[in-house]
Specification:
Layout (H helix, E strand, L loop, with lengths): L1 E4 L5 H4 L2 H10 L7 H11 L3 E9 L6 E9 L6 H13 L6 H19 L3 H10 L4 H10 L1 H12 L1 H19 L6 E2 L5 H16 L19 E5 L6 E7 L8 H13 L1 H8 L5 E7 L4 E7 L5 H16 L4 H15 L5 H14 L3 H12 L3 H14 L5 E6 L1 H7 L8 E4 L2
Parallel strand pairs: 5-9, 5-10
Antiparallel strand pairs: 1-3, 1-4, 2-3, 6-8, 6-9, 7-8
Length: 418
């Protein structure tokens, strides 16, 4: 993995980054056309990908934002794989405008096609975007914000293509450099020695240019958004700002999310409400706690269930066996088996997030020793305390949201998808 820092990229250019990721492997490079490069990648590597991710450092004191290029290969193919990587990094053909146009339209179509099947994920991104910088970046890169941007780009492609290609070249030059690069290698001892020798010439080609870190900001977004989609079902999300790793509330919130997901929300939203799913998620890396519904026939009823979930858990004594089930499920999520690639990637993300082994052990022990006081006396009271800061997003049919607005207070701000 080569993790390039992108914290210095201005907010106005952040929405361009997902397309740059597609262009890195989707265009020709060096002496190869796109078709030839694809063949070389298939023959000499187990795949090359580029993606964007961000999160908080330990204790939520700062954020990190990275463009990560990942490549895997057999040991005998290391020299060829490094040559391919070098061409992609330094000799990518950002002048292939016909192919770029295909990728832009392909990206728009893929995002549009993903909204209805994954509406709960899009709703969560829209709701959480107003709460934390990592969540806002996630929305910019992968959510409705990205769809609106790429749709506008596709519709005005012929008028803006020259400006766009120049911007892509400038953006790539700002990112592919030594400044704050983290190189993450995963192999056995023999493989690591071979890989270090082979990757060193690639690193020497990197620019030494330095850029000022831009002070990021989250725009003033609506805390209650309704997005019109062509579906007869709803996707309802409510997101709360939450502590990150390093907080004493992290472990209780982690267990509470599973307790509510498998208990109250499952019963009220799926069994009684008829939705395909009712979920509760806590992301201690991104600092967001969220309620979600999937393919939901209801809207305002689901929002009332979210509100009642907090009151119910506060007033009702949670059975000991339910807490134990939630603890076991939480430990299962923490101790999930990983292959070497996943272990290498996870160790890199933990490095960015400042999760030392001792702190991970402390978090795991806190989950194992969880009791009802920590769940309902601390974690739950925290969520009740920040309830007025929570944000709501609904993806549903327009008429259904207009009807819901007759009773919702405050009402949803209804917008089109693009």
């Amino acid at each position: 993995h080569l993790a390039f820092d992108i914290a210095h990229i201005p907010d106005a250019l952040q929405t361009y980054l997902p397309l740059l990721c597609k262009f890195m492997t989707g265009l020709g490079a060096g002496e190869w056309s796109y078709d030839e490069l694809s063949k070389q990648i298939a023959l000499k590597t187990g795949g090359i990908g580029v993606h964007l991710t961000s999160g908080y450092g330990f204790g939520g004191r700062q954020t990190w934002q990275k463009m990560i290029i990942h490549i895997r290969m057999l040991y005998r193919n290391i020299p060829d794989a490094m040559r391919i990587l070098s061409d992609i990094l330094f000799r990518g053909k950002l002048s292939e405008t016909a192919r770029m146009k295909d990728l832009v339209f392909e990206g728009r179509n893929d995002l549009q096609a993903a909204v209805v099947p994954s509406g709960h994920i899009f709703a969560k991104r829209t709701a959480a975007a107003s709460l934390t910088l990592p969540a806002y970046r996630d929305e910019q890169w992968h959510g409705r914000n990205q769809l609106k941007f790429i749709n506008g780009l596709a519709e005005s492609w012929s008028e803006n293509v020259d400006d766009f290609t120049g911007r892509m070249a400038d953006l790539k030059a700002r990112i592919i450099g030594k400044e704050k690069l983290v190189l993450n290698l995963t192999a056995d001892e023999i493989g690591l020695r071979s890989l270090v020798d082979a990757v060193t010439p690639v690193l020497t080609e990197l620019s030494d240019a330095r850029f000022m870190v831009c002070e990021p900001s989250i725009p003033d977004l609506s805390p209650r958004t309704g997005v019109v989609i062509p579906a007869q079902v709803s996707y309802v999300a409510e997101a709360f700002p939450a502590p990150t790793y390093g907080s004493e509330l992290a472990a209780p919130l982690f267990v509470l999310s599973r307790l509510l997901a498998n208990g109250y929300l499952y019963k009220k939203i799926r069994v009684e409400g008829g939705a395909y799913g009712g979920m509760c998620q806590y992301d201690p890396t991104g600092g967001v706690f969220s309620f979600l519904s999937y393919r939901d026939p209801h809207l305002e009823r689901t929002l009332s269930v979210y509100a009642e979930a907090l009151r119910f858990a506060e007033k009702e004594a949670v059975p000991h066996e339910e807490i134990q089930k939630a603890i076991i499920g939480s430990i299962g999520a923490l101790d999930r088996p990983m292959d070497p690639v996943s272990r290498g990637f996870a160790s890199m993300i933990r490095y960015f997030s400042g999760q030392a082994d001792e702190e991970r052990k402390k978090f795991r022990l806190a989950v194992l020793s969880m009791d009802d006081k920590a769940l309902t006396g601390e974690a739950l009271k925290y969520l009740i305390r920040v309830k007025d800061k929570a944000a709501v997003a609904v993806y549903a049919e327009g008429e259904k949201m207009h009807t819901a607005n007759m009773v919702l207070q405050p009402p949803l701000r209804i917008e089109t998808l693009t």
